[in-house]
Design goal:
The complex is a heterodimer of chains A (123) and B (461).
Chain A lengths: L2 E5 L3 H13 L3 E5 L2 H11 L3 E5 L7 H11 L6 E5 L2 H4 L13 E4 L4 H14 L1
Parallel strand pairs in A: 1-2, 1-3, 3-4, 4-5
Chain B lengths: L1 H8 L8 H35 L7 H27 L5 H22 L10 H12 L2 H24 L19 H76 L8 H33 L5 E4 H18 L3 E6 L6 E4 L1 H17 L6 E9 L2 E8 L31 H11 L3 E5 L13 E7 L5
Helix pairs in contact in B: 2-3, 2-4, 3-4, 4-5, 4-6, 5-6, 5-7, 6-7, 7-8, 9-10, 10-11
The chains are: A alpha/beta (123), B alpha+beta (461).
């Protein structure tokens, strides 16, 4: 079964997302900061990375995504964001933001599962 | 190296941004060419005038000379016009120096031909000094002025001594003063001070203006910088505000989705209600941030939007709210095809969210909210009518003002920002919004209000 790494500093989001994904049969590993996040991805080599755009700093998520890509990690990335709609920003795929899809918080369980499944299939 | 030093001498010391300065010079150079064409016309007019005035007589030499000068000026003016287009930005400064030199040369000859010290056109020297001071450093202009005066003095002296013939205009002056040394000395001193003073004053004004402009630019830059950090701050605040709410919402989703085991319908109903309230606050945060962004940047991002679809979607999303007050929402689109509009999608969502929500919030139970969409030629009209409490006549003038709330709404929560937001968004799309109360569907349920938004369908923004 596919392994999914979730990196988010909010323990409740981690908990809720893990619960939903585990119930669908996925294996889940989690980290609460960019350093641990990078660590689990390199050690466990997940099939999908879920990444929060903002952790301590407003663009921690972007930097981590860029770091993955720079170091040759091509695992699909699904990004959690809370500000995109509010600011009227629709993030596009670009070198600046090397992620495969976005979900706007609050994330509904159905939407999460749908996006995860479609990203895993694409791979 | 020598060329470079020579070049730097041409640029006033106060200039800070060369790129920008060169652009200004290019603009001035083009302007000089236009001015010169006007001067040529004026010169032709002067020549004709001198020839038709009774009693005034121009000699053959004077007539021919003026015509040659006119041809000379016209040809170099065309040449400069071409050069200005071809030359690189940094070469424009040298070009302006050349223009001034050639002009001063032509003017000197013209003055001699038309009577030297007796010719009133020597006043044009001053005009040239002012123009030159707009571009070149004051020092350079003083040198140029000195050379001009030297030429003028030389011509006058040579005429005085009889070395070259004096070209007086017969019939224009009744007595001659080119041969009066005292007059010459006084005249030349006054004229020289006039020339130098005009350079001094113009250079000072130009320098002050330039510095003022730079100050403004710096202030603007600071403002932009502040704006950027504000944006970043806003993003951080939104994140902070939304994070706990989002987390709470995710936890409620776990319960509603039976991820934590079965719960009774009663619990689910209450949790659904809690989720609705949470969504309201998320919606509110989004709206606030979106609009403050629009206010701060005063920028709209235009895209092609299916307005009919947007309205239908929005009606679906507020239906639960309407059902609670048993309000019927009717959407009436006059034509078969969906209506499209070039507009900022986010901001128009905000417009509908405000007007539709008002139409429910201030409506009476069992009322109606009627949304009509029609187009005629290029004009798109959206009418939103309700059977609510209406807007009193006394509030008519003020209803679109920020933080103003109608006198009859104190029972209903609100901030008085909604209609102000709507109006500025519509006006930023080159449209208009008006309202009247009682509304077109006014009934026993309530007087109601009708809002009419008019927009041009194919605005190019």
């Amino acid at each position: 079964m596919a392994l999914i790494a979730i990196i988010d500093d909010d323990p409740d989001i981690l908990d809720a997302s893990s619960l939903v994904l585990k119930s669908k049969g996925f294996d889940v590993v989690t980290a609460t900061n960019p350093v641990d996040g990078y660590d689990i991805v390199t050690k466990r080599n997940p099939n999908l990375i879920i990444l929060d755009v903002m952790m301590d700093e407003p663009d921690d998520g972007f930097f981590l995504a860029q770091k993955f890509r720079k170091n040759g990690i091509t695992t699909p990335i699904l990004m959690y964001t809370s500000v995109s709609k509010a600011i009227g920003l629709e993030f596009g795929k670009s070198d600046m933001v090397p992620v495969d899809d976005f979900v706007e918080k609050p994330i509904s369980p159905e939407e999460l599962v749908k996006k995860v499944e479609s990203l895993l299939q694409k791979k | 190296m020598a060329a470079k030093i020579y070049f730097m001498l041409l640029i006033p010391k106060y200039v800070q941004i060369y790129e920008e300065y060169f652009k200004t010079i290019k603009r001035y150079n083009a302007w000089f060419v236009e001015l010169r064409f006007a001067a040529i016309l004026a010169l032709i007019a002067l020549l004709i005038l001198l020839n038709i005035l009774p009693d005034v007589l121009l000699s053959f030499f004077q007539n021919i000379s003026v015509i040659i000068i006119i041809i000379f000026i016209t040809s170099y003016n065309y040449y400069f016009q071409k050069l200005i287009r071809l030359k690189k930005k940094d070469e424009q400064v040298i070009l302006s120096l050349y223009q001034i030199i050639v002009d001063l040369f032509s003017l000197s000859i013209l003055i001699y031909v038309l009577g030297g010290i007796e010719a009133p056109i020597f006043l044009f020297y001053i005009f040239h000094m002012i123009i030159g001071s707009l571009i070149l450093p004051a020092g350079m202009m003083y040198v140029l002025a000195a050379i001009c005066l030297l030429i003028f003095v030389t011509f006058s002296s040579l005429e005085l001594m009889g070395t070259i013939p004096h070209q007086n205009i017969i019939g224009l002056f009744n007595f001659e003063f080119y041969n009066n040394l005292n007059y010459l000395l006084v005249f030349l001193s006054i004229f020289a001070s006039l020339v130098f003073i005009s350079i001094f004053i113009t250079s000072k004004i130009v320098k002050d203006l330039y510095e003022r402009e730079q100050q403004l630019k710096r202030a603007l830059d600071d403002l932009h910088q502040a704006e950027k950090s504000k944006q970043k701050y806003v993003a951080a605040v939104v994140h902070e505000l939304k994070s706990p709410i989002s987390a709470a919402s995710s936890i409620l989703d776990l319960i509603l989705g039976d991820y934590l085991g079965e719960v009774s319908q009663l619990v689910k109903d209450k949790i659904s209600r809690a989720k609705e309230r949470i969504n309201e606050s998320i919606q509110m945060i989004n709206n606030m941030v979106r609009f403050s962004r629009f206010r701060l940047l005063n920028k709209i991002e235009i895209e092609h939007v299916n307005l009919s679809e947007m309205i239908r979607k929005y009606i679906l999303s507020i239906n639960p709210l309407a059902e609670k007050k048993n309000i019927t929402i009717n959407f009436n689109q006059k034509q078969k095809d969906d209506v499209h509009l070039n507009c900022d999608r986010n901001l128009f969502e905000l417009v509908f969210s405000n007007l539709f929500n008002n139409g429910i919030k201030y409506n009476n139970p069992n009322g109606e909210l009627l949304i009509e969409l029609s187009t005629k030629d290029d004009l798109l009209t959206i009418e939103i009518s309700d059977t609510g409490i209406g807007i009193p006549k006394s509030d008519k003038e003020k209803i679109f003002e920020e933080y103003y709330r109608a006198s009859n709404v104190m029972q209903v929560e609100g901030t008085g920002t909604g209609l102000n937001i709507v109006k500025s968004i519509i006006e930023n799309h080159d449209g208009s919004i008006i309202f009247y109360s009682p509304s077109k569907i006014s009934s026993a349920i309530g007087v109601g209000t009708t809002f009419i938004i008019e927009l041009k369908q194919n605005i190019l923004l």
